[in-house]
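Mods, move this if it's the wrong board.
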Amino acid sequence: KVMHDFINIAAHELKSPITPILLATSLAQPKDGDKQVTLSKDAFDMIVSNARRLKRVAGDILDVARIESNFLDIHKQNFELNELLDSIVKEYAAQVKQDSSKKVEFLFSCNGPIEIDGDKDRIIQVVHNLVDNAVRFTNEGSVIIKAVKGASESHVVVSIKDSGTGIHPEIMPKLFSKFATKSEKGTGLGLYLARNIVEAHGGKIWAENNENGIGATFTFTVLIASKIPADQS
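Not the wrong board. Structure tokens:
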């Protein structure tokens, strides 16, 4: 039954971005006699954002197969984390503006440049999956992304705090397992992938409902580049 439910959800997630892509392209279809295609910026942005979403969903499904086969590649390099987070925040803020059902403000907070040692594409994947999760369960309020150095300054702590529905008690014990979701949207793979990627970087990931009873906060750690021991570089 779990696999059957997953197939249905995965099929839905793969099909969902296709509808707005087809809609935007149909609006741009030239009329009889026209030789040029006219595409508004909103339609163009819709195509790009949904194509990226489709790519991420397909990538998540493939990565689960790689993890199950112990073949998840991690290619580390030094890069500036806060520039990456800032660009992701701007990307999601633009996407949410296109969704009339969402009234969500995106905020980003950091305490200066932080260079980390990691697989940039994989860290992007982790943040995307965590922010996707926050947006899915937040229709109104805010999503706050924060990056701060840990107490020992050997690692950075990244948190994604939302004002959504929070984590269901039934899901909490298995939150980072495959197919753990109470939502009809999403594949139930994002948090599982995030955990495996973070742990492959020597970091930790956890989640908790916010103390005020509104929403949840997901947090992960990753080593700062200059603090990596020689035998781990």
